[in-house]
Amino acid sequence: DADVTQTPRNRITKTGKRIMLECSQTKGHDRMYWYRQDPGLGLRLIYYSFDVKDINKGEISDGYSVSRQAQAKFSLSLESAIPNQTALYFCATSDLGGSPAYTDTQYFGPGTRLTVL
Amino acid sequence: EDKVVQSPLSLVVHEGDTVTLNCSYEVTNFRSLLWYKQEKKAPTFLFMLTSSGIEKKSGRLSSILDKKELFSILNITATQTGDSAVYLCACNAGNNRKLIWGLGTSLAVNP
Predict the structure, then answer these.
(1) Cys-Cys link to A116, which of A5, A81, B10, B45 (CB 3.0-4.6 A)?
(2) Among B48, B26, B46, which Cα is nearest to B38's?
(3) Sites in chain A below the pLDDT cut of 70
């Protein structure tokens, strides 16, 4: 089984609808992230969470909200979807590891392709 | 402002060629540099580099970091069509230890 799973894998919705993307992980990592990827713009961080009680905005959080329901679950919501939120969304996890270098390698889920019409 | 710049943006080679992908960075409190490979799905981790001059190697792929000149290279020797992908570079930096991502290099290996 995959260590980081995302549901749904594909979603088509209409402008104004509320959408929730879910992420679950079995890696036991404390840190979880939501990114969106658009052609030519690379990976951009939406929100990140370093533990269940710690949630932080990334560089493009407007129009999005998140919930960290448990160490293993981190969901992303679009309260009122708009067409420019059409993108590929990735969840990622990381752990500090045992190294003092704090390498923070991130491991990605398979992605959710969201289309807003 | 922290930034990671990759070059070239895209590259087309023939099977068997050797390629070098570049990643330069300007980040505060640099901790490590990571390389990922992204085919038509999620990025997968390749290497993490923290020290200058120490080569990381995995099969035909290798990478090295120069912390004085602030860059890293990813080499792929004897390329195969399965190496076709976008290669992403990211730096772990700052007190919050987020990753700063480059835009990637799109590599196409033709038979």
Answers:
(1) A81
(2) B46
(3) 1-2, 96-103
